[in-house]
C-alpha cells in the first residue's frame, strides 16, 4: 500500500524529531561518560578530554539544535532569543575549547612531549582556530550593518554553511581523540564503537537540519 504525501511528510517529521531527541541525549551523555572516564582533577591532562567533549559534543550541538523546528528546547521563544542563546553557547564552547587546548599544550610542555604531531592534535588545533574565526564572523550577523555590501540572507547562508564545516571538524577531532592511546586503553570492545557513534549521530542530525534549512530558503525565494 502506497503512502500518501501527507503520511510520508508526517513520518519524515517524526523520524527527524526522534533523531533530534537522540542527539540531545548523546550531546549530554557523551561528556558525562568522558567525565567518568577522565576523573577531572585527578591530573592536569584529565581536564582536556572533558573540556573538549563539553565544547564540541554538548555546547556546540545544543547551540545548533536551538534552531531545529522539531527538537529545539526553545521552540516557543522568538528567533531573537534563540540567536542570543546560540551566541552564548558558542562562546562557552569556544572558551572550553581554548582552555582545553591550553591545558594539553602546557601538559605536553611539562612532560617534554612534542606538540601537534598527531592527526588528533593537528585537527584539534585547526578546529579551535576555525571556531574562533566562526565566532568572530557571527558578529556580522548580530550587526549586519558592518557588511553593507552583503544581504542578511546571504550572511545567514554563509554563516550556517561555514558553521556546519566547523561542527564537522569538531566531531572529527573527537573521533580522532577516541583513537588516542588514553582512550583506547580506557574504553575497549563494543563500548569503543558505541562511543564513536556519538559524534557521528549528532553530525548527521546537524547536517540534515542545515540542509533542510537551506532547501526551505531556496523554496521561499521562488
TrEMBL record:
<feature type="transmembrane region" description="Helical">
    <location>
        <begin position="164"/>
        <end position="184"/>
    </location>
</feature>
<feature type="transmembrane region" description="Helical">
    <location>
        <begin position="190"/>
        <end position="210"/>
    </location>
</feature>
<dbReference type="GO" id="GO:0140571">
    <property type="term" value="F:transmembrane ascorbate ferrireductase activity"/>
</dbReference>
<keyword id="KW-0349">Heme</keyword>
<dbReference type="InterPro" id="IPR045150">
    <property type="entry name" value="CYB561D1/2"/>
</dbReference>
<dbReference type="GO" id="GO:0046872">
    <property type="term" value="F:metal ion binding"/>
</dbReference>
<keyword id="KW-0813">Transport</keyword>
<feature type="transmembrane region" description="Helical">
    <location>
        <begin position="17"/>
        <end position="38"/>
    </location>
</feature>
<keyword id="KW-0408">Iron</keyword>
<feature type="domain" description="Cytochrome b561">
    <location>
        <begin position="12"/>
        <end position="217"/>
    </location>
</feature>
<protein>
    <recommendedName>
        <fullName>ascorbate ferrireductase (transmembrane)</fullName>
        <ecNumber>7.2.1.3</ecNumber>
    </recommendedName>
</protein>
<feature type="transmembrane region" description="Helical">
    <location>
        <begin position="118"/>
        <end position="143"/>
    </location>
</feature>
<dbReference type="Pfam" id="PF03188">
    <property type="entry name" value="Cytochrom_B561"/>
</dbReference>
<feature type="transmembrane region" description="Helical">
    <location>
        <begin position="44"/>
        <end position="67"/>
    </location>
</feature>
<feature type="transmembrane region" description="Helical">
    <location>
        <begin position="87"/>
        <end position="106"/>
    </location>
</feature>
<dbReference type="GO" id="GO:0016020">
    <property type="term" value="C:membrane"/>
</dbReference>
<keyword id="KW-0812">Transmembrane</keyword>
<dbReference type="GO" id="GO:0005783">
    <property type="term" value="C:endoplasmic reticulum"/>
</dbReference>
<dbReference type="InterPro" id="IPR006593">
    <property type="entry name" value="Cyt_b561/ferric_Rdtase_TM"/>
</dbReference>
<keyword id="KW-0472">Membrane</keyword>
<keyword id="KW-0249">Electron transport</keyword>
<keyword id="KW-1133">Transmembrane helix</keyword>
<dbReference type="GO" id="GO:0140575">
    <property type="term" value="F:transmembrane monodehydroascorbate reductase activity"/>
</dbReference>
<keyword id="KW-0479">Metal-binding</keyword>
Amino acid at each position: 500500500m502506497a503512502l500518501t504525501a501527507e503520511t510520508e511528510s508526517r513520518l519524515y517529521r517524526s523520524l527527524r524529531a526522534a533523531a533530534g531527541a537522540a542527539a540531545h541525549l548523546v550531546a549530554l551523555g557523551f561528556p558525562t561518560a568522558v567525565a567518568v572516564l577522565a576523573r577531572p582533577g585527578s591530573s592536569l591532562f584529565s581536564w582536556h578530554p572533558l573540556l573538549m567533549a563539553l565544547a564540541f559534543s554538548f555546547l556546540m550541538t545544543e547551540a545548533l539544535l536551538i534552531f531545529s523546528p522539531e527538537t529545539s528546547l526553545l521552540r516557543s521563544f522568538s528567533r531573537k532569543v534563540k540567536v542570543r542563546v546560540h551566541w552564548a553557547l558558542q562562546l562557552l564552547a569556544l572558551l572550553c575549547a581554548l582552555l582545553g587546548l591550553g591545558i594539553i599544550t602546557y601538559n605536553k610542555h611539562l612532560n617534554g612531549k612534542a606538540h601537534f604531531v598527531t592527526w588528533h592534535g593537528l585537527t584539534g588545533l585547526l578546529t579551535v582556530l576555525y571556531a574562533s574565526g566562526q565566532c568572530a564572523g557571527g558578529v556580522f550577523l548580530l550587526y549586519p550593518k558592518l557588511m553593507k555590501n552583503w544581504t542578511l540572507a546571504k550572511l545567514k547562508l554563509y554563516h550556517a554553511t561555514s558553521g556546519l564545516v566547523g561542527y564537522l571538524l569538531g566531531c572529527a577531532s573527537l573521533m580522532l581523540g577516541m583513537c588516542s592511546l588514553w582512550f583506547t586503553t580506557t574504553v575497549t570492545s563494543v563500548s569503543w564503537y558505541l562511543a564513536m557513534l556519538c559524534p557521528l549521530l549528532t553530525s548527521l542530525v546537524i547536517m540534515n537540519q542545515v540542509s533542510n534549512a537551506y532547501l526551505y530558503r531556496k523554496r521561499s525565494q521562488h
